[in-house]
């Protein structure tokens, strides 16, 4: 079962469970309530996860509880039974692979998956974080986005663990980081083209905000340097991990006076766009132009010709993220970072360069 939330516009209501009172906790909470100028009932509602407290007041109480070192009882408001995944946009084929992996994990644990669409590659809005707290999932997987320290602290106080796939920068302590070995993938793709005899090799990377995009481009540059091929900045263009930017940037490359004989794209969608650009320029793949993608989404094998690409275990990564979130929710220690190996899948889109480009 899936639930979809667009920038926290849709929320589902939950009934909070009534937690048994702890005799020794009541005086402590009453004192804390007096110190911060709210009622003991308000503090109790926050402790037990009742939704009828304003965000401002809830945050005030949460911070006071944290300063006091108070730990919520295990019988506080139960989590929803959902794992949530947050994408920038839910219109990319690889996102379906992420969703498939997380859903498989949820099924194994008798859970469901909810989906958020953030419409940003940067930090999610505070409103989205507040909506997430109200939805109260078992944990959340963020894709290509990072939380601020304050946002992460809010989730931690509500015992909502988070994992990040391919963060933009250095992830915060307490989060689980999952990434593919993008640098090695970039090296492997470029070495493959070099071994075929190419020296005019272009790269259409992803959005350089994403660490994975930077790593793939760095791997490409390393392989060139390793082979003694000078790096040409005119042959290395940024992208957005979309077929549209793959098409637009490939057109620029193929219209150069000394065009490349091969292109390495940051993902398979950009390779799809490069296919279109090659056709418009009257070039045959691979006879006139070799193309290597990245991800190995199901569509890659169905392209004409079938795409040579770097296999990225997307579904496996998402499945592992779900396992880590569940373990974190149960208080088990988990590795701070998990790296998944990538590998080359040779199909029909690469061959030796033409004698004259």
From TrEMBL:
Q: Which residues cross the membrane?
A: none
Q: Name one Pfam family in it.
A: LacI
Molecular function GO labels: DNA-binding transcription factor activity; transcription cis-regulatory region binding
* Every HTH lacI-type domain range: 27-81
Its keywords, alphabetically, are: DNA-binding, Transcription, Transcription regulation
Q: Which domain of life is it from?
A: Bacteria
Establish whether keyword Cytoplasm is in the entry: no
How is this protein named in the record? LacI family DNA-binding transcriptional regulator
Q: Which organism is it from?
A: Bifidobacterium avesanii
